[in-house]
Specification:
The complex is a heterotrimer. Chain B is α+β, with helices and mostly antiparallel strands. Helices cover 11% and strands 18% of the residues of chain B. Chain C is of the alpha+beta class. Chains A and B meet through helix 13, helix 15, strand 1, strand 3 and strand 5 of A and strand 2 and strand 5 of B. Strand 1 of chain A pairs antiparallel with strand 2 of chain B.
């Protein structure tokens, strides 16, 4: 019998060295600065790129192997979902609104992240960082594709999914995620990394994917759980990349600290504003809820975040400036948003509704300090108007923040009875903001934000379809009476009830 | 401060009054009346009398609030950029010095049915 | 004292991993939520290849953890025998 010669297996560290570091070379016929023209202008000083290392020591061969396995698992479930009318297993058709927001607002963001990391992978001079950015770029593309694929099975049956690409560019509320990613992608490679790799991935995406996907499981939505967890399995690597990069930057030169701190302040706040939407999805759009936004914030931001910032304190980093105001807003934002979406539902490509008594009771119990005092009376009054047949519609257009482009629905940090108004005149032009932090971001780099394309303002300029609500709806691909309006009486509500009736009994309707 | 960039990066505002066909943007917010999720953005002509615009546009927008019928435009307290301001509603926007993208807040002390 | 944590999808592959973590980290707290399992531990947490292999009776490549990983908190250090999470303060 032949003895198989066992080849000595490479250790992980050795393999990582051979398959990343050794892929780099020193340029001989072009100067280094010409090869990497964007590596220095942001002011970040790096002395030794070889000090950067991926703690997972993941090499491309292993990467492809594991990603292929994730995709196989994903498509097995997507096939089963399509073959077994998986869309009828969700707890309630209201839940679809959360998926519509996800597809319109979040999935295009994954695609932006893909483009951003592809660029960062080219522009960073360090080979370890290049490889990690390249993997993340491919991950983000996979996320966009798997999300679109999974949600396309809902598009066959329900309204509001059909034009997410056009809506990403034209729908007023989608200018919020769009401006967020445009801002990051127009920064240099270091700012992009601190923005998306660290502030967004490390500090905030746990809030997006973990409780929300667990919520999807709780609501019988296997398609979303699958793409969510499949994407999230990459996030741990992204978070680790983000954390390693920020440690690396701070260890390389003391001059980097103030630049990084400013980016942290900025991107924590921009990310928080973006994720306020998720709070609304968690508190109001999941028919069965795992935890409230406030509870998720406590676990994933306050507890985990404070451990992180205690750790970074040795580099001189302090928690982001907006941290305290974020904590104050925790018990308010989801209610402020859902009340807004309800009254503006004529202009959204998802449905709004008044929560049931049981849901209002749940919110009271989760938000004992704020809900009964500030928000329940408004819901009760909306319900009174709806019951009387005079449903409240707010047909006024909203003031938007020049920075985050959110409608200014937020109240003063210390006075929940008064909207927060901030303004500033810059070079003879007046601008409005939702908060001190958004104003500070714009004051620091006004060149970027004064050119913001603000959807409401543009309506009055007559650019969005030619003026008038009907033209605007055509222009954003919003089908009036189907995609928008109240859930009660919608096609989604009727169809879901009818099809579920057919699926659970022999009496076809 | 200015943006860090490789080349000159001038300020290029896209919201100047020249884009509004002779009209101008004016924002409105009713203090402590949070039934309306955000301040309103409107686009009146500077030569319109303020009261005419208030009656034709703002009053219908706020009509759903239980306090709306009791709002008397000549008695409300006006605030612009965190300072009290006197507005003669019988005169036009331009006669009152109300410019492009001004935010006008109005206060109605004692009226707080929903958000007191 | 700061907590490190790791969250895994709950499925057949991770059952043995969670058992191994519980065995190697007596101070770890396991919380089961819909579709996932969360493990918190004060300051430090380790996943050992050999313990997982004892549980499954087969070979286990630590890097395959990536397939079922949901999220984590703490600094990562990994070689072929163990993956550890820690804070440095």
């Amino acid at each position: 019998m032949d003895m198989k010669v066992q080849k000595a297996k490479l250790g992980l560290k050795e393999k990582y060295r051979l398959m990343t570091r050794d892929l780099g070379w020193t340029p001989s016929y072009q100067p280094h600065e010409k090869l990497y023209p964007y590596a220095a202008y942001e002011g970040i000083v790096i002395h030794d790129w070889d000090k950067w290392e991926d703690p997972f020591r993941l090499t491309m061969d292993a990467y492809w192997k594991y990603q292929a396995e994730k995709d196989r698992k994903f498509y097995a479930i997507i096939d089963a979902h399509a073959q077994n009318n998986g869309h009828l297993n969700i707890t309630d058709a209201r839940y679809l609104s959360a998926l519509k927001i996800f597809l319109q607002a979040i999935s295009p963001g994954e695609y932006c992240a893909h483009k951003g990391f592809a660029r960062a992978g080219r522009e960073f001079p360090g080979v370890g960082t290049q490889v990690a950015c390249q993997m993340q770029s491919i991950d983000e593309l996979r996320h966009a594709q798997t999300q679109i694929h999974a949600l396309s099975s809902y598009n066959r049956y329900y309204d509001g999914f059909h034009a997410f690409i056009q809506m990403r560019d034209r729908m007023w509320y989608n200018s919020v995620p769009r401006s967020f990613f445009d801002d990051a992608m127009t920064g240099g490679p270091f700012e992009f990394m601190v923005a998306i790799g660290f502030s967004f991935e490390y500090v905030l995406t746990n809030l997006l994917f973990v409780p929300f996907m667990s919520g999807a499981a709780y609501n019988g939505d296997m398609a979303t759980v699958t793409f969510g967890f499949s994407a999230q399995s990459d996030e741990a690597r992204h978070m680790t990349l983000g954390l390693e990069c920020i440690k690396f930057i701070l260890e390389q030169d003391p001059a980097n600290l103030p630049i990084v701190q400013r980016w942290l302040d900025k991107w924590f706040w921009r990310g928080l504003r973006l994720l306020s939407l998720v709070g609304t999805m968690m508190d109001y759009m999941l028919p069965k809820r795992v935890m409230s936004w406030a509870e998720a914030w406590e676990i994933y931001a306050e507890d985990n975040g404070s451990a992180l910032f205690k750790d970074l304190a040795r580099y001189g980093i302090r928690p982001p400036k907006g941290w305290k105001d974020a904590a104050k807003a925790r018990d308010h934002i989801s209610h402020q948003f859902m009340l807004a979406f309800y009254q503006w539902s004529f202009g959204t490509a998802f449905h709004g509704w008044i929560p049931s008594e049981a849901d209002l009771d749940w919110l009271s119990s989760k938000y004992p300090e704020t809900f009964d005092r500030h928000y329940r009376p408004r819901w009760d009054y909306f319900k009174k108007l709806a019951d009387a047949g005079t449903q409240f519609r707010n047909v006024g257009l909203a003031k938007l923040c020049q920075c985050c482009q959110m409608p200014c629905v937020f109240t003063e940090p210390d006075d929940p009875t008064l909207l927060c108004h901030r303004e500033r005149v810059i070079d003879g032009h007046r601008y409005h903001f939702c908060s001190d932090h958004c104003r500070e971001i714009v004051e620091h780099e006004p060149e970027k934000y004064v050119q913001a394309w603000m959807p409401m303002n543009q309506l009055f300029q007559g650019t969005s379809g030619g003026g008038g609500i009907e033209n605007w709806m055509r222009w954003v691909n919003l089908v009036d009476g189907k995609d928008n309006g109240d859930f009660v009486g919608s096609r989604d509500q009727r169809n879901f009830a009818a099809w579920r009736g057919m699926a659970t009994s022999n009496n076809g309707t | 401060m200015a943006v860090v960039a490789l080349k000159p990066y001038p300020l290029r505002p896209v919201d100047g009054i020249e884009h509004y066909h002779g009209d101008q943007l004016v924002y409105w917010s009713w203090d402590h009346h949070l039934m309306f999720a955000a301040p309103f953005i409107t686009c009146p002509s500077p030569s319109t009398r303020v009261v005419d615009f208030l009656e034709a546009t703002i009053r219908p927008l706020i009509a759903a609030d239980p306090d709306a019928d009791r709002v008397d435009w000549t008695c409300v307290e006006w605030i612009r950029d965190h300072e009290p301001i006197a507005i003669d509603v019988g005169k036009s926007f331009s006669e009152n010095g109300i410019g492009h993208k001004d935010l006008l807040r109005f206060r109605t002390p004692g009226m707080n049915t929903l958000c007191g | 004292m700061s907590q490190v944590f790791i969250v895994l999808q709950s499925n057949e592959e991770t059952r043995a991993i969670v058992e191994a973590i519980e065995q190697d980290n007596p101070r770890a707290k396991v919380t089961r939520q819909p579709a996932m399992v969360r493990i918190d531990a004060p300051e430090h947490l380790v996943i050992r290849r050999t313990t997982v292999e004892e549980k499954t009776g087969g070979a286990f490549d630590l890097q395959s953890l990536h397939i079922n990983l949901v999220t984590l908190g703490g600094h990562v250090s990994e070689d072929e025998d163990e993956l550890s999470l820690s804070w440095n303060h």
